[in-house]
Structures are given as structure tokens and as C-alpha cells.
Amino acid sequence: MAEILVIAAHPTLEHSRVCRALLAALQPSAPSTADPRTEVRDLYALYPDYFIDIAAEQRALAAARLVVWLHPVHWYSMPPLLKLWLDEVLAFGWAYGPGGTALRGKDLWLVASTGGDEASYHPGGHNRHSFSAFLPPYEQTARLTGMRWLPPLVLHGAHRVSEAALDVHAQTFRQRLHDWPRWPGLAMVRADGRFDVPADARPAPD
Which residues contact 149 (CB under 8 A, 6 or more apart)? Predict the structure, then answer.
């Protein structure tokens, strides 16, 4: 089990520019140069039928120290299979709630891409808000499970970015994984406490 776990979620990876480039940057030039610290789990390749192996995903998460969510932004959120993964894998009593301490103390890093350019994520742009305004559900997930939320790595305008800029972005991603946890200033990033969910707050089945 690896200490860096990259959860990749792109519904049509074969048509992706950014996610494919980032994942390609993690591929070793030879087996001997593979990074033993890093495991990549491509959710759409693993679970095309959407039947998630919860135990396998929880084992990978339990072993990791850094969890990376790599995905394109879909309607200001994550792709549907990643949302299902979150719903099923981060279970009550395992990831949060009474006894739910499996993720406590880990780091969570969002690596995302958007179709809109950076100017569109502005009060004067067509998205009307800064990109950070769409992140509270991610940040609260980290807080609820006791993980430390790291500053995201975001590439805007994915469809129009130049090949040179995309290559720089991919190498930045690769280098930051290689350097973690020795990021400048990372020691100053604190986990935002932890909100304990009472036992009777678990959603009842319909």
C-alpha cells in the first residue's frame, strides 16, 4: 500500500487533455524508476459499472498519508462516480462519526481543471464567483473526517491551454507529489479542527 493515493475520476479520460497529461507525468520511464510511494486509482477504469469495492478503497485510504482527488470540475463539483465513491467509501463510523477516525491526520489535496478560464471565476465573469467559493463542500469533507485541507492545484481553461503550459502544469504536479510533505510553508497549514458528529445524526434509510 502506498502513502500517496491519487484518486483519479474522469468519465471520458480518452478525450481529456489535462487529466491524461497529469497521469502520464506519473508514469515511470522504466519500471525501476517507479515511485513506490504513489498509487493511482482510476475510478472509471476500476468501476465502469459503478459498483465500488468499498473494502478495497478503504484499505488504500487507510494506508495513505496524502489523498489526492484528481478530476475535471463538472457543474461546479466533482464527477458523479467520485461523488458516489465519497458517499459509499467515507462511511459513518469509519471516516466520521463515533469511531470514525480512519482518515484523521491525513492530508487531502484537490487537483482540478475547469473549462472556464480564470477570468470567468470572478464576480464580473459568467460564473459570478471566485473558484474558492465552490470549495466549501470539499473543505468541510476534510474537516469532518479530520484531514488537513491543502491549497488546491487548479488549471483553468483546460480546452484552450497551450501544450507548453500544460506540460509545465503536469511537471509541477509531479514535482509536488515528489516533494510532499516538504512543501514550503506546509508546516503552517493546520487542520481546521474536527467536528464530532453525534451517533444519532446518522441518516436513516428511506
Answer: 108, 138, 139, 142, 143, 189, 191, 192
